[in-house]
């Protein structure tokens, strides 16, 4: 397998996908660090509200605009960042508002939409799904051209499937009959807000002081002024996802559920003809690196030898512990082989289970070293983690 650096050579957009809890955010940050260390200007975008990206980078917080990470933070870990590493945490509502500001033809239309009560409720609901706003932000940053590489840490893969469908769903919404009915100056729309509903709206206005009918009318009138912009945006987003410079990295752990989700998601990517750049498996039992693992006969011989030195009870415990460890390593090896076979990957990038969860720069740099090592060095690091070096 070629190195991760070679696999990402020439890529402008890297989308990191996988099920929840497999280390996507940390992997995204480590990849960003590796590319920035190589001299590129990189921005990592996360939607994770748990601040894992900020913590891993040693930052107090991240906002909705890219923030540069001080390269001196990595000097103590013997990593020289020749390029620039930037990071941001997506604010879905703010991103949706920014999109309206970009697409509105004039200040009056912009203010009518942003200040409209219908929009404020609707935008919170739509932005809360995060899929559309994430890809919209990615598109804007790519079009602005300020970065060599953009890395997007996506939602868990089941939601990431919605993320892939976002451009088509947006286009279908604007071309749908329901919206056309509301925007029509007469006919069914007029009947919808005709005599019967006008009485209801009148009562609501008297009770609440809110002219809901006026809000609905203003909202849809203003919306008609930005529909072409939304359609153009959806088309641009779809083109970006299919661009040869865009690649997907699938991240998993060796457990059954993440493995099956990774296989399912890879199938959906291939159906949509998206490119899979690499397969990364985190939290692997380092024992998979043992090319000559002990069999039952070897374990029995070890127990007999230890019995003479340590006594039978302790020897049995040591032998049992080694057998359990071998069982876990074999389980991980079988899961990885199943994943590679299903995805047609000759080899996955393996990152061993670390002693602690990655929550700081030290853990991040360890992940970075495993991901960007050469194949021989990565294998050596895995053997060292297993105590085989």
Automatic annotation (TrEMBL):
SMART domains: AAA. InterPro entries: AAA+_ATPase (IPR003593), ArsA/GET3_ATPase-like (IPR025723), ATPase_ArsA/GET3 (IPR016300), P-loop_NTPase (IPR027417). It comes from the Bacteria. Pfam families: ArsA_ATPase. Residues 10-233 form the AAA+ ATPase domain. GO terms for molecular function: ATP binding; ATP hydrolysis activity. This is ParA-like partition protein. It comes from Paraconexibacter sp. AEG42_29.
